[in-house]
Amino acid sequence: MEIRLNPKSANFFLLLIIGIPANLTILMLFIVSAISDKKLMPTDLILTKLSFVNIIVVLVRGIPQALTDIGIQKLFNNYGCKVVIFTYRVCRAMSVCITAVLSIYQCSVLLPPSSKYTTLKQKVAQNIVVIFLFIWCINGIIYIPLGFVYTQSEVNSTIPKYAINLEFCFVLFPNEVAYRVNGIVYSFRDFIFIGLMVLSSSYIVAILYKHNKKLQNIRSPDQKQRNATELKAAKAVVMLVTLYVFLFGLDNAIWMYTLTVSNVAPVISSSRVFFALLYTAVSPLVIMGTNKKIQQKLKCFSYNTDKKVKQSTVAHIEIKTEEMNS
Description:
Blueprint: H1 7-37, H2 42-69, H3 78-109, H4 115-126, H5 128-142, H6 144-149, E1 151-152, E2 163-165, E3 170-172, H7 176-215, H8 221-259, H9 266-290, H10 292-325
Helix pairs in contact: 1-2, 1-9, 2-3, 2-9, 3-5, 3-7, 3-8, 7-8, 8-9
């Protein structure tokens, strides 16, 4: 087996190097915050779930693709391929859905303070876990055929006409109807959640514009700081949604192209994977750059680390001094 490095494999390894540590950092910081504070705010809980599914996406899809690109073949048997593809597709779908839920929740936070909207905000916040369980179940059911029926590790001879060649696994559809229907169903689901993202983000942008004008007339420092915090959180959500919609557009433009042809080239499939993984690598950087709680935890961790290093250095110097004096 010949190990070969090329720009394609280098890109995937770069995404792994960025995506795994960045998402793990966010996940661990929120877990520590939940333990120390005894609870997580709904937005923090949503971001925790987003980081979790991003890690799974990178692990089950990024690593096999990177290893295949450097020349390592036959990574999985049939069962392994089915588990990997099913897990990837469900978690990739959850990444779409969680980003949509995040934008919708942030939209609800910015709704006018009336009794009707207050009840809605409370219901959304109280049922976040139920909402996610429902979405997990729906996505799991949708991807059973693709993951466990149509996926296998290798083909007997030539690649069938209606197949997706992932290089380390193959998704073989029995006929053209199954191929097109699966593609349309998955795209329709994605477009629904992308539409919800765009609508909620558009409302957030409109609210941000109005709040920026109000902030100029607010004299109370506390009220001004509270509004500024809400605005910063809303801006972060808009940035995540904008990033996702852009990468989603590239991803689905390629997907729509694949639905019009048969025997899709492996480079086309890997291009789609690259854009999907790019969101998992860049989004945690956006979260860390805009989330105040994460920034505070990182500063605290950095301060404690520096303090321990200085104490260890001082203790080491003192021991050396005592040895020299003796």
